[in-house]
Give the backbone structure.
Amino acid sequence: MALLEAKNLTKRFGGLVANQDVSIGIEKGSITAVIGPNGAGKTTFFNMITGFYEPDEGEILLNGKSIKKLRPDQIASRGITRTFQNIRLFKEMTALENVMVGVHSRLSAGILGILFNSKRVRQEEERTRVEAYQLMEYVGIAHIANEAAGSLPYGLQRRLEIARAMATNPQIILLDEPAAGMNPRETVEMTDFIRRLKKELDLTIILIEHDMKLVMGLSEYIHVLDYGKKIAEGTPEQIRNNPNVIEAYLGKSASDVS
Ligand SMILES: Nc1ncnc2c1ncn2[C@@H]1O[C@H](COP(=O)(O)OP(=O)(O)OP(=O)(O)O)[C@@H](O)[C@H]1O
């Protein structure tokens, strides 16, 4: 059984069908890419999996149980986390504090704890700080712990967002264009880092990415969307040679998939 199963998902915005009958199964411990031209429906798919949009039709199963009607925080607590295409950090807060927010969402002493048990709250605060710092060390960004998130270069902000997502202790992480805006060196580092997440933490990774070199080099399996419909799935080799995929990218840039 697939760890995560999206079955026949459809999402409409007025007359526009952003996802139509999309089915995607994700195996535990795999790296899967969802690709397609601009506006194909990739982020809409992520938004349904993570509870930001409720599908109009279809079903989403995690370990065989429906998560379709759950809120984003409930889905996060079941181990599915994400990053965003447009980085969403608390820009005025330090990098460490941003990661602490992620850890907090898992540990939180609750409002009664805050009112009546300040010692426990203080201990939890300290534990949160230590955990967040360790996570930053793992991600290789501990040196920027005390810098304001908004002042960091783009590549570091992307890594920081991943560190915050990982702080919720996920089993599945959805990365929406992790290499967007990165220079070639940063892209290679990001590729290595994603591989490490899979290998060392046994994370299941689903990514949206326009950088075909990254997609083809990193993914074990690829699903292709075009105008809201899934037009192909397969290994990188199969996708590279799939006439439907080449056709979908033609007119944009045929060389994108080669
Ligand atoms: N909240 C929304 N309201 C109305 N239309 C939306 C909404 N979200 C997405 N859409 C539309 O749905 C379609 C699919 O958008 P989506 O962002 O999922 O595509 P995408 O494949 O992620 O594109 P890109 O690669 O450009 O990020 C687009 O036509 C978009 O304008």
In short: The longest helix spans residues 118-139. Strands lie at 4-13, 16-26, 31-35, 57-62, 65-66, 80-82, 172-176, 204-208, 221-226, 229-234. The CA atoms of residues 36 and 146 lie 38 Å apart. The chain has ten helices and ten strands.
